[in-house]
Amino acid sequence: PLERKRFYQNVSISQGEGGFEINLDHRKLKTPQAKLFTVPSEALAIAVATEWDSQKDTIKFYTMHLTTLCNTALDNPTQRNKMQLIRAAVKFLETDTVCYRVEEPAALAELQKNEWDPVVAWAEKRYDVAIGSSTSILGPNIPASTKETFVSHLASYNMWALQGIEYVITQLKSLILSMGLIDRHITVEKAVLLSRLEEEYQIQRWGNVEWAHDYDLCELRARAAAGTLFVHLCSESSTVKHKLLRD
């Protein structure tokens, strides 16, 4: 269900044998596959608990992106292993948003060059790879060495973080923008704007459906931000100090 009446008063976290658990009153949260909802870091548990605590009279599951990502990591509904997750993420390079360019109209082509080229240049320098761009419908010819470099880089992340990385890539339709976001090179707002560059150009030219554009923009920002936060919290080894909880 997309929504459900709130059935609990208090949300808390506790540490169990497998990690940190979420408690709704005296009930322990479970995944859709009825597994105990256990996350690897205290910081992530606090973030998830905050999602549940912020629900009002109705639980709106579609707003709880961190909870959804945790459920995916725990249940692994597609039954993929680590290398399959990595290969799926790297495959996005072949259709990466920032690598596909137009020749016409000239104004849009110039906008893509000015806005996307610096991010591509950053990625090439950061990972010591060749990426490039193309106006061909077939897209750019990404060298095999570039793909293998990204495979090696992504292999340094754990399975939980990889679920988050793939989620961000799926939202932005771009591995390059996603890595720029996760590496803190660009902000969520910037990454989302760059991923929607052509759409924003058309809106400026022709106008937009007032409420629909704003909703889509906010929703994409929320998903990209949640996915990025999820990656960072799943990669964080240190626990949150109790003083911070009291503050």
Automatic annotation (TrEMBL):
InterPro entries: ATP12_ATP_synth-F1-assembly, ATP12_ATP_synth-F1-assembly_N, ATP12_ortho_dom_sf
Keywords: Chaperone, Membrane, Mitochondrion, Mitochondrion inner membrane, Transit peptide
Signal peptide: none
Membrane topology value: Peripheral membrane protein
GO cellular component assignments: mitochondrial inner membrane
Compartment annotation: Mitochondrion inner membrane
Gene3D superfamilies in the cross-refs: ATP12 ATPase (1.10.3580.10), ATP12-like (3.30.2180.10)
Primary residence: mitochondrion
Any one biological process term the GO annotation gives: mitochondrial proton-transporting ATP synthase complex assembly
Highest rank taxon of the organism: Eukaryota
Assembly and interaction partners: Interacts with ATP5F1B; involved in the assembly of the F1 component of the mitochondrial ATP synthase (ATPase). Interacts with FMC1.
The family this protein is said to belong to: Belongs to the ATP12 family.
Function according to Swiss-Prot or TrEMBL: Plays a role in the assembly of the F1 component of the mitochondrial ATP synthase (ATPase).
Protein name: ATP synthase mitochondrial F1 complex assembly factor 2
Source organism of this protein record: Balearica regulorum gibbericeps
